[in-house]
Design brief:
Number of helices: 7
Order of helices and strands: HEEHHEHEHHH
Strand content: 5-15%
Largest sheet: 4 strands, mixed
Distance between the termini: 24 Å
Number of strands: 4
Amino acid sequence: MLPSYRVIVLPPQENLEGAKTLYMRASFMISFSIFVDMEKREQFMLEAIEMADNNVRNGGGPFAALIVRGDQIVGRGINRVTANNDPTAHGEVTAIRDACANLKTYDLSDCDIYTSCEPCPMCLGAIYWAHIRHIYYGNTQQDAAEINFDDSHIYRQIERPIGDRAIPETRLCSERAKGTFRLWSDKTDKILY
């Protein structure tokens, strides 16, 4: 949430002292608002980090995330990759799933995510698909790589032409597949996302 700003109309020259007082009060209010917002953001981040700590203590990975709307947590997620035998069960993805279920929507454009680590390519894709408006993170990609969670190979694969990627990709039944896209394109009651 961005701090609110007030417009100050300066009084005539003869009341300049009053204008200075107004300006100082407005500056304090803006600074205080930014401070309070930053303090609240840090509380959310610390909660996400604590969730990651607890997940490690309970046999999970060192990642967790919160989805926040306004000042309210609407989704929580921890890394459940090994616990669920699900390579997509990253903290950010499980938090997005939780928030979407709780809010009964796929559109989180009025929400922010607080994640213990900069999102991997998969999680970043999920964040963009959910239309989350801001990402706050604790650790960086480089920090994760230092503890053997290195996503750099995935980023490099994305940049390569399809024929040069490590996992072979082969296009099959493209005309039939385009039929499904035409069906979607012609659908009049579709919900765009």
